[in-house]
Amino acid sequence: MAVKVCTGAFEPWQEIQDYQNAQISGGFGATTVFIGTMRDFNDGDDVKSMMLEHYPGMTEKQLQNIVYAARQQWSIIDALVVHRVGTIMPNDAIVLIAVWSAHRGAAFDANRYIIEALKTTAPFWKKEQLTTKQARWVSKNTDGYTAG
Amino acid sequence: MAVKVCTGAFEPWQEIQDYQNAQISGGFGATTVFIGTMRDFNDGDDVKSMMLEHYPGMTEKQLQNIVYAARQQWSIIDALVVHRVGTIMPNDAIVLIAVWSAHRGAAFDANRYIIEALKTTAPFWKKEQLTTKQARWVSKNTDGYTAG
Amino acid sequence: MTIKIRYFASLRERLGRSEDTVDFYEALTVSDVWYRANADQPLPVNVLASVNMDYVALDSVVQDDDEVAFFPPVTGG
Amino acid sequence: MTIKIRYFASLRERLGRSEDTVDFYEALTVSDVWYRANADQPLPVNVLASVNMDYVALDSVVQDDDEVAFFPPVTGG
Prior knowledge:
The complex is a heterotetramer, with 2 copies of chain A (148 residues) and 2 copies of chain C (77 residues). Chain A is α+β, with helices and mostly antiparallel strands. Chain A is built from 3 helices and 9 strands; from the N terminus they run E-H-E-E-E-H-E-E-E-H-E-E. Chain A is elongated. The two termini of chain A are 30 Å apart. The model of chain A has no long low-confidence stretch (mean pLDDT 95). Chain C is α+β, with helices and mostly antiparallel strands and 77 residues long. Chain C has a single domain, classed as Ubiquitin-like (UB roll) (Roll). In chain C, strands 2-1-5-3-4 form a 5-stranded mixed sheet. Chain C is globular. Chains in contact: A-B, A-D, B-C. The A-B interface holds A 13-14, 16-17, 26-40, 74-75, 90-91, 102-108, 111-112, 115, 142, 144-148 and B 13-14, 16-17, 26-40, 74-75, 90-91, 102-108, 111-112, 115, 142, 144-148. Chains C, D: Belongs to the MoaD family. Chains C, D: Keywords: Nucleotide-binding.
């Protein structure tokens, strides 16, 4: 299990491949991945870049708590969580969650649990820089179960 | 949208990366991936290899129908389905499903729909070669929603 | 009129062949097609059938030149 | 006894500072800590609070050397 906070851009597929090669010796029948990517629009406005602030120390602690809680609820073999902070450009990966399990039910459910818990409890805050030069804090995350 | 049937081993993370680079110009905020991997045991027995038979032509047709049905139900930007046939060794990827969407709810739900529909309607059949020299057809797939 | 029949997986192995051809002059259902080719074998329990690569019910009627397939429950993914 | 306070994101920007230190000699709740540092500012609606990097209720009691943080709803992922 690993949680990582990155200050620079990361290549999500490469991160998963490297982690899997280094950490996981087999036994998994199912792997699920979620990647959140920055878009260049939000709430009807064009977004030029984003600043992601976090609470160093608490971030890692909360992410570890989330992964631990997922392990308590589902039978999973391993999990990787990577989250970007700092200045982020459109089309950059913001967050990566990968879950390895014997069976697909657990791999899907644990992955989705982790992203929902991250979005509600991990101390990250997004500030958008609009193309109009305005900057604004994102005020709340959408509900991932009902949002389209 | 693409569905592919592979007769040789494929590298799932590389497949996704290549497809994303070639086909998707942006606009997606969420990507989900499911990968099914061959394990070296099943139903309490050690499995040495597996032969995956399929119905050429019908396979592609059914996979396209499944992806089309997913697009009708969820707002997705693109989807890639890759499935292996022929002789498969433990730790080889069998199936890859990737879904790109604006929002994570659709990306998760469509991905899971596609794998469940594939497992119940795409004409593939697995025959396991056990380490005891015995060979046996897998008689049915497990339910992915309730199985652990 | 001619129907091509295909068999897959454990069913193909059990029958010992992967294809049959049936000639006919009257209306046949998918189930009738099975018995033309396998008079001595009951239709397997849980068998799935397709016509021209689409799933069909066993009582659907076939046409000249159709490709009918019979196979066990699928186990891909 | 000494408490370190940290502020994040829009709350940090609005207050114009990222940290405070509060000295005290009696039992204080997290909410009391806020008012020691921000006597003129009501606790923001929806504010979240942590003590030593764990989420806490606003009425939980702090200890010497604790790190208390206040921040708006999180928006990562």
